[in-house]
Amino acid sequence: MENPLFDQLLELGLSHYEAGVYLVLLEHSPTSASFIAKKLRYSRSTVYAALDKLTAKGLVGTTYKNGIKQFIGQQPKRIGEILHEEQRAVAKRVELFAKMSDQLQFLSRSNTQIPNIIFFESRESLKKIYINMLQAAPKNATMHIIRSEFYWTPEWNFIFGDEWHTRVKNWRSERNISTQLIINDSKEERKHLPFYKSRKYTSSRFLAKDQTVKDFALYILGDTVSILSLEKNNSVGVKITNQALAENFKKIFKGLWSESVKL
């Protein structure tokens, strides 16, 4: 049907057949199912199915003329009412999910002896893994990070873009996540000391000189550990969700943290 209103009704949530039937009714109410079928070249069964759905939505009413059932298209403002009803329903579902998300997350971690292992490659995959870790993190957790200088290379400039920064900030704020970060004691990292010292919820330290890492990152958050190898044109990694493994990595991090040097 070549009609901009038809396409717009589809965008508002009506089906192909519902939109066609409703437009005919707005122009020709009251009218019969037979008239609608002929007008649209739909089968009678298709028209009746669409009428039933439109009636359930409050967009169609009925009357009788000479003993024949006639259908009436209700005022378009009813579509606005439906959208507001759906909006309220979605808001209630979002509120319900917020109340139960921690319990669901607890269930997902309850069987900790079975590791959940995901291998990934490419920068886009690394981004998704990082956001996933923030989303799944328990509230008030601390993220432990060890990483090399890849952070400052051109291909990772997106980290400082508004879109990425806002996404990360929102999730960290919602989960109240703080960070302990260990970096190489290098000329490159020392150039960015003002940046590190300005980060409100991040404590940063230098690795001991004999512990310098190259093309590498380790992220530990909650029950999840992500290990990244960031060689040029060959970024790969593994994400493992397992409570026992995560706790052991936290102990290793704690040992390195105690040997590290304050900025």
Structure, described:
It contains ten helices and ten strands. The protein is an alpha+beta fold. It folds into two domains: 4-74, Arc Repressor Mutant, subunit A; 111-262, Endonuclease, Chain A (2-Layer Sandwich). The strands form two sheets. An eight-stranded mixed sheet has the order 3-9-8-7-4-5-6-10, with helices on both faces. 21% of the residues are buried.
Distance between the termini: 67 Å
The appropriate CATH architecture of the largest domain is 2-Layer Sandwich
Look at the helices and sheets and give the structural class. Answer: alpha+beta
Give the topology string: H per helix, E per strand.
HHHHEEHEHEHEHHEEEEHE
What overall geometry do the principal axes of the alpha carbons give?
elongated
> What's the level 1 CATH class of the largest domain?
Alpha Beta
Radius of gyration from the alpha-carbon trace, in angstroms = 29 Å
Strand order of the largest sheet: 3-9-8-7-4-5-6-10
- Beta-strand percentage range: 15-25%
CATH fold-level name of the largest domain = Endonuclease, Chain A
Biggest sheet character: 8 strands, mixed
* Low-confidence runs of at least 5 consecutive residues: none
DSSP helix count?
A: 10
